[in-house]
C-alpha cells in the first residue's frame, strides 16, 4: 500500500499543454466574488491558469468552465474554499464541459447539487481537492462529490470527499480511468465506477460510508456493458453509516455495512485490499435484481476475480432482506464474501481468499433473497490472466508529479 500523497498540500503546477502566451488570472475572495470568479472562467484562454486566492469565496450560484486546456488552482484544499452554503439554485458547485482541464488545490463546501461535475471532458485531472458537506450525512446533501461522466482519460488523485448523498467519488459512462490515493468518508457510496470501461481504483481509503466501493452497470443508459475494472491496494473498513440516500436512487438499495459491491459487471478484479468491520459483508457480487425494459442490458455479473485480500470481521449485522435469517442459520454471521448465484455456476466468481464465501443460489435474477439456499463457494488456486494496468497520457501524469 503506497498511499503516496493522501495529505492535501498546495503545489506548483503546469497545465497539460502550456502555450508561451499563457497567463495567470488571479481571483481573490471578498465582495463580488461570484461575478469576478465566473468572469475569470469565461475570460480564460487555452493554457491559462485561474488562480484562487486563499480564503473563503461566498457564492450564491454555480460556476462553469467550457474552455479547453485551463487550470483552476487554489492555494490548498483547506485554504482556498468555494463555499456554496448560500447557493440559490440546485445545480452543481462547479461544472466543467471542456477538455484538458486541471482542477487542483481547492475545496468545495455545501453545494446544493453535485460538488464538482465534468461532462464530456476528456483528459481531466482532479488533484488535491476537498469536497465536503460540513453538516455530515444528510439526505438533503448533494448527490455526488467528484463527478466525471461521459469522458475519456480521467485522473482522480489525492482528493477527499465527505457527505455525498449518493457517491463521494463517482465516475460514470467513461473510459480509461484512475482513482487513487483518495479518501471517501461518510458518503452513501464511497467510490463508484458505473457503466464504465477500463478503470483502476487503488491506494484509496473508503471508510464510514454505507458502502465502500461499488462497481455497477445499469440499464437504459447510453453506455452499458461495464467491464475491465481493477480494485486493489485499498483500505475498505468500517462502512457502517446508515443509508441516507433519497428514496428511489439505486444506491438507496446498498445495504449498510457493505465493503465492495459488484453488480452486473464483467472482468472485475478485487485483490490485495484490506477489508473489515463491514457489518453486511466485505465483498458481494450480485446481479441487477430490479425490473427493466432494456433488451440490450445484461443484468448478470461475470468473470469476477477475488484474490489475496486481507479480511477482518464482517457479516455480524447483514442489512438486506433475508440476511439475518441466513446469518442465523450459519451460526450468527453472514459470510465475508458472497455471490447471489445470478446466472448459475458458469457465472460464479473466482475466489482465493481463505474466508467464509458462499453462493446464495439465487439463479433467477428476480428471485426473492429470502428464498436463498446458501452453499460454499469453491476456493481456487489458479488465477486467470490479470487485466492490464491503466495508462493515462504522459501529460496528465506530469501534472501531479
UniProtKB/TrEMBL annotation:
Name this protein carries in UniProt: Right handed beta helix domain-containing protein
The keyword Signal appears for this protein: yes
Origin species: Sphingorhabdus profundilacus
Keywords: Signal
InterPro entries listed in its UniProt record: Beta_helix, PbH1, Pectin_lyas_fold, Pectin_lyase_fold/virulence, SO_2930-like_dom
Signal peptide as annotated in the record: 1-22
Domain called Right handed beta helix: residue spans: 98-270
Amino acid at each position: 500500500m503506497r498511499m503516496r500523497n493522501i495529505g492535501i498540500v498546495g503545489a506548483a503546477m503546469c497545465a497539460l499543454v502550456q502555450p508561451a502566451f499563457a497567463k495567470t488570472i488571479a481571483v481573490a475572495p471578498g465582495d463580488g466574488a461570484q461575478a469576478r470568479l465566473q468572469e475569470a472562467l469565461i475570460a480564460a484562454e487555452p493554457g491559462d491558469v485561474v488562480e484562487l486566492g486563499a480564503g473563503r469565496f461566498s457564492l450564491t450560484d454555480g460556476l462553469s468552465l467550457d474552455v479547453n486546456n485551463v487550470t483552476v488552482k487554489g492555494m490548498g484544499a483547506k485554504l482556498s474554499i468555494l463555499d456554496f452554503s448560500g447557493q440559490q439554485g440546485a445545480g452543481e458547485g462547479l461544472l466543467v464541459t471542456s477538455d484538458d482541464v486541471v482542477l487542483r488545490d481547492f475545496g468545495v463546501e455545501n453545494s446544493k447539487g453535485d460538488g464538482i461535475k465534468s461532462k464530456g471532458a476528456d483528459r481531466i485531472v482532479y488533484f488535491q481537492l476537498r469536497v465536503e458537506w460540513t453538516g455530515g450525512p444528510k439526505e438533503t446533501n448533494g448527490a455526488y462529490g467528484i463527478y466525471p461522466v461521459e469522458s475519456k482519460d480521467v485522473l482522480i488523485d489525492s482528493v477527499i470527499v465527505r457527505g455525498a448523498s449518493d457517491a463521494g467519488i463517482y465516475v460514470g459512462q467513461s473510459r480509461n480511468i484512475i482513482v487513487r490515493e483518495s479518501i471517501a468518508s461518510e458518503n452513501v457510496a464511497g467510490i463508484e465506477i458505473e457503466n464504465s470501461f477500463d478503470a483502476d481504483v487503488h491506494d484509496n481509503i473508503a471508510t464510514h460510508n454505507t458502502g465502500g466501493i461499488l462497481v455497477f452497470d445499469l440499464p437504459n443508459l447510453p453506455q452499458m456493458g461495464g467491464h475491465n475494472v481493477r480494485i486493489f491496494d485499498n483500505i475498505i473498513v468500517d462502512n457502517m453509516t446508515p443509508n441516507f440516500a433519497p428514496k428511489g436512487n439505486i444506491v438507496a438499495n446498498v445495504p449498510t455495512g457493505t465493503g465492495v459491491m459488484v453488480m452486473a459487471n464483467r472482468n472485475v478484479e478485487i485483490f490485495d485490499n484490506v477489508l473489515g468491520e463491514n457489518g453486511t459483508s466485505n465483498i458481494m457480487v450480485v446481479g441487477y435484481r430490479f425490473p427493466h425494459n432494456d433488451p440490450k442490458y445484461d443484468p448478470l455479473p461475470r468473470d469476477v476475480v477475488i484474490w489475496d485480500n486481507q479480511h477482518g470481521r464482517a457479516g455480524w449485522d447483514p442489512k438486506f432482506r433475508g440476511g439475518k435469517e441466513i446469518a442465523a442459520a450459519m451460526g450468527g454471521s453472514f459470510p465475508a464474501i458472497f455471490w447471489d448465484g445470478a446466472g448459475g455456476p458458469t457465472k460464479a466468481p473466482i475466489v482465493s481468499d481463505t474466508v467464509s464465501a458462499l453462493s446464495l443460489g439465487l439463479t433467477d435474477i428476480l428471485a426473492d433473497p429470502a428464498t436463498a439456499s446458501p452453499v460454499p463457494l469453491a476456493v481456487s488456486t489458479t488465477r486467470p490472466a490479470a487485466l492490464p494496468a491503466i495508462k493515462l497520457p504522459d501529460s496528465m501524469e506530469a501534472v501531479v508529479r
